[in-house]
Amino acid sequence: MHALVERFRTRLVPALLLALGLALLGSGLLSYATAVESAPEAVALPTHDPLPTIDPSIVLPGSSAGTAEPTFPPDRVATRVVLRRLKIDLPVIAQPPSAGAFPLCDVALYFTDLGQPGSGRATYIYAHARRGMFLPILTASQDHNGQKLIGQTVEVYTSDNMLFLYQIAEVRRHVREMTGAYADDIGRLWLQTSEGPNDSYPKVQVVADDVSSAPADPDAAHPKAHPRQCQ
């Protein structure tokens, strides 16, 4: 009986969540979260499209038209991250060199030195602990060391119209290094936000295990990003 319950929890529940999420996306019931916080001396940036161009007519070697490609596409990048229970839904981009080192607001960002979903390396996504961004992660981490986060599902969409589901397994507080992410050779998802207003403060890391992946609606996988510089 225990084995049956465990199988239901680890396999059937994530699959049902994926089916429900895709059904809601198809019906247009889900919308992208927008940050409502305004920062002093904010400087508006033009609409930013960080995604590589994906030609749907190209069939990669070893694949067939209309099926998901099992090998990792070299130009795949994360484009959207969703934690439904925390009401987080953000476009994901790479920090443009012209924006400087301080992370942009109103988006999440992927760390370019590590991997992408399906690559077998850590996917590292970070955002400010501000309203409309990753503030709910910081708040949840402060309640019993984030135990309520364990088991929650994280959705990550990618530029080649795929949806990856992850299940949160660990919450790490007061972190000042990324050695765990660099050592990750199984392709876990790492979410990071800050515990304070600048880079002198430690971070919160949420680590999630890869559960499944499936093709996604292109509109759902390609949200418009409107980043802004914030202080």
Give a brief rundown of this model.
The strands form two sheets. This protein has an eight-stranded mixed beta barrel with strand order 2-3-4-5-8-9-7-6. The chain is built from four helices and ten strands; from the N terminus they run αβββββαββαββαβ. 18% of the residues lie in helices and 27% in strands.
Would you write up a description of this structure?
By secondary structure, the chain is an alpha+beta fold. It has a single domain (2-48, 74-229), classed as Sortase, Chain: A (Beta Barrel). Helix content is 18%, strand content 27%. It contains 4 helices and 10 strands. An 8-stranded mixed beta barrel has the order 2-3-4-5-8-9-7-6. The chain has a two-stranded antiparallel sheet with strand order 1-10. The chain starts with a helix and ends with a strand. Residues 12-70 have low confidence and may be disordered.
Radius of gyration: 17 Å
**Average of pLDDT:** 79
CATH class: Mainly Beta
| DSSP strand tally | 10
CATH architecture: Beta Barrel
What order do the strands of the largest sheet run in, or round the barrel if closed? 2-3-4-5-8-9-7-6
For the record, what is the CATH homologous superfamily label? Sortase
**SSE pattern:** HEEEEEHEEHEEHE
- What helical percentage do the residues reach? 10-25%
Summing up helix and strand content along with how strands pair, one would put the structural category as alpha+beta
Low-pLDDT residue intervals, each spanning 5 or more residues: 12-70
Q: What is the CATH third-level topology name? A: Sortase, Chain: A
End-to-end Cα distance, whole Å, is: 54 Å
> Number of helical runs?
4
